[in-house]
Design a protein that fits this description.
Length: 60
């Protein structure tokens, strides 16, 4: 059985992706852009944050 855990570098990358997706979501929402982009950015941010919240991190 393999032990699945995030490395600190992977966790940092996911956090950056979540921040960029959240910022893009907010920008599209404020300009009342297409709903498909809202869904895209929202799902990306949600998946990244859920991964960070529920996948354990490997110790240094």
């Amino acid at each position: 059985m393999t032990d699945f855990a995030l490395t600190p570098l992977t966790a940092t990358g996911l956090f950056v992706i979540a921040c960029i997706a959240g910022y893009s979501y907010r920008r599209v929402w404020k300009t009342e852009g297409p709903r498909s982009r809202l869904w895209l950015y929202g799902v990306i941010a949600a998946l990244a944050l859920l991964t960070l919240g529920f996948v354990p991190m490997r110790g240094g």
